[in-house]
Amino acid sequence: MSWIAAATATTSPESAQQAIGYPTLFLLVLFGALVPVIPTGALVSSAAVVAFHQTAPFALALVFVTASLAAFLGDVALYWLGRRGMGSKNGSRWLEAIRARAPEERLAQAQAKLADHGVAVLVLSRLVPAGRIPVMLACLMAEWPIRRFARGNAPACLAWAVTYQLIGILGGSLFPEPWEGVVAAVVLTVVISVAPSLWRRVRAAG
């Protein structure tokens, strides 16, 4: 039993958190990309706060790699499912889910921007709240091959992961306790996500 005691002694709570936390973050971001109801930006910011307060030298880098890879794989999988739905006579529930989250006005704007700026629009779509799905649908309707979408989506996921990780680092640096930084990061990401829709409503009312 001595080896069990030695292993227990050398396993810190921090390393245990990492062993559980990174796979969980990966799965949640991946699922959130496929089913866009999970606030993945808030998840990444919260994970960055926790990593900021850890002593592990590569904690923040692992959060970045985990989040960007999961987002990329989730986006590519959803796009592939959408292409299958476009080619099917009966469509698919994934394609219908994409269409349901892309209002006609937003879709028309995404199509116009995609025609004018191409791949660059994918990068911005990941950074603009609720911008990812309309642009993805515009790419589907433009019949982009999955390789072209993947090439444009890779830098988009990297930029997205960096942005929300920086929000988490900001929250972690402002407060001494990790939970305080997590709350601040979550509040900030929520404000960022609802600000554009509120601004559009104010403009429409005016």
What can you see in these coordinates?
83% of the residues lie in helices and 0% in strands. Residues 1-12 have low confidence and may be disordered. It is elongated, with a radius of gyration of 19 Å. The chain is an all-alpha fold and 206 residues long. Helix 4 (59-87) packs antiparallel against helix 9.
Short description:
The protein is mainly α. The protein has helices at residues 2-10, 13-34, 40-52, 59-87, 93-100, 104-117, 120-127, 132-141, 146-174, 178-205.
**Portion in helices:** over 70%
Ranges where pLDDT stays below 50 over 5 or more residues in a row are 1-12
Bulk shape: elongated
Q: Would you list the SSEs in sequence order as H and E?
A: HHHHHHHHHH
Please work out how many helical segments DSSP would assign. 10
Q: Percent of residues in beta strands?
A: under 5%
Class by alpha and beta content: mainly alpha
Largest sheet: none
Q: Radius of gyration in whole Å, from Cα?
A: 19 Å
Annotation keywords:
single chain, 206 residues, mainly alpha, 83% helix, disordered N terminus
Q: What is the secondary structure topology, with strand pairs?
A:
Blueprint: H1 2-10, H2 13-34, H3 40-52, H4 59-87, H5 93-100, H6 104-117, H7 120-127, H8 132-141, H9 146-174, H10 178-205
